[in-house]
Amino acid sequence: MSIANPIYDVVFKYLLDDEKIARMLLSALLGKEVLELTFVPTETRENVQPPDGTGILVLRMDFAATVKMEDGSRKLVLIEIQKAHDTSDLDRFRRYLGTSYASQNNVYRDEDGKLRPLPILTIYFLGQGLNGIDVPVIKINRHYLDVATGDELQITDPFVEALTHDSIVIQMNRLRNRRRNELEKLLAVFDQGLASHTDPHLLDILEVNFPERYREVLRRLTQAYAEPGMRTKMDLEDEILRAFQEYARESADLRQAIPEKEKVIDEKDKVIDEKDKVIDEKDRLILELTRRLGSGD
Questions:
Q1: pLDDT tens-digit profile of 255-269?
Q2: pLDDT band at 140, cuts 50/70/90?
Q3: Which candidate, 21, 44, 176, 262, has a CA 20 to 30 Å from the CA of 102?
Q4: pLDDT tens digits, residue range 189-237?
């Protein structure tokens, strides 16, 4: 069957706009049942200035939600999709994370009625994964350790939880032919190796190989492509990505050209310096000859 490719922001947003599916996906990723989910508005507009000075207005739809886990704990979950390498992405992720830490809205009331900051968990879907790590899904979990003994402490503390965070990294380019557990089977909907040969907006997936309890995800993504204007929005994302890739290539060419030009300038400066030395030597010889002629030597 053919489904809309969720690597597109507009499709991913459509997928997670269904609360039941959002809870299903998060529960699978976190390995714990998500009992409640409340979406946090994150839609922002950025006026991006490429190197040629032409402004492009980009609508970003980062996903954020507060979730209540089966153990009663609450977290702020932030999800980002990165299709291609961009030198500005890391800075943007850090700014977004810093804003989330600082926001007065990201709080909850504990059992005593006190307001406490929500612990944060970040989830990154990377189109181009990390170097040297051939694993589709990576979980970065914090551990409390007794430094003297190396023993793990089976506790958590609000202070630590508020100032540090866990993370999950999904390397979409490592999903190919990886179906070792139910989570990897679910994440097959992000496997770009299944992209249709005739339309990259679509993935071709075998429903029979997909976990039955997650098949609502497939139906939702099938509906997405039938939504009015969906293909137009996906085309627009492609155009914006191509534009930035072109700007990146031009910038790379410029960065490569500058050292070459500097090298040529350095060589010219060296030649000029040598000429100046020759002229200075000639002037010295002329002065010396003139002195000798004047003295009759």
A1: 666 666 677 677 777
A2: very high
A3: 21
A4: 999 999 999 998 999 999 998 999 999 999 999 999 888 888 888 888 8
Please report the pLDDT score of residue 86 as a whole number. 61
Written as six digits, the tokens of 270 are: 């060296």
Secondary structure (H, E, C), the chain: CEEECCCCHHHHHHHHCCHHHHHHHHHHHHCCCEEEEEECCCCEEEEECCCCCCCEEEEECCEEEEEEECCCCEEEEEEEEECCCCCCHHHHHHHHHHHHHHCCCCEEECCCCCEEECCEEEEEEECCCCCCCCCCEEEECCCCECCCCCCECCCCCHHHHHHCCEEEEEEHHHCCCCCCCHHHHHHHHHCHHHECCCCCCEEECCHHHCCHHHHHHHHHHHHHHHCCCHHHHHHHHHHHHHHHHHHHHHHHHHHHHHHHHHHHHHHHHHHHHHHHHHHHHHHHHHHHHHHHHHHCC
Residue at token pair 């997405």: 224
